[in-house]
Specification:
Blueprint: E1 6-15, H1 20-32, E2 39-44, E3 49-50, H2 54-66, E4 75-85, H3 90-96, E5 110-117
């Protein structure tokens, strides 16, 4: 597994503030469903964090309107996770870091950013 890349993944998403606990539970369940042969999860954020990015908020609110959500009630949040993954499973792993599958109605429309990490070993 030493040659597998390690990523810090930030999932930006919109939600009604009263639903952030639901979003966190769903995110944790989806990340937890990643098969161990595909990735080793090092950590997941303890809770969603409010974020400021007016452009991304507007973009995700527009996406939310197509999902049947009321965009005016939505605010921007982030969740982070660090994981080491098998490159052969990259698409499967990245999809699990969203709140639904590609053909499902998305309760928390989102966007991901990835940063490659170098783990320090003692």
């Amino acid at each position: 597994m030493a040659e597998w890349p390690t990523l810090l993944v930030t999932t930006w998403f919109v939600a009604e503030p009263s639903l952030t606990d639901d979003a966190h539970q769903l995110y944790t369940a989806r990340v937890g469903a990643i098969p161990p042969e595909a990735a080793e999860v090092h950590f997941i954020s303890a809770s969603p964090v409010s974020a400021e990015d007016p452009h991304l908020l507007a973009m995700l609110r527009e996406t939310a309107s197509y999902e049947g959500l009321d965009p005016a009630r939505l605010e921007l949040f982030t969740l982070r996770c660090a994981l080491t993954f098998d490159p052969a499973c990259e698409d499967e792993v990245h999809q699990q870091l969203f709140f639904c599958g590609p053909t499902e109605r998305d309760p928390f429309p989102g966007f991901q950013s990835h940063e490659v990490l170098r783990l320090l070993r003692s």
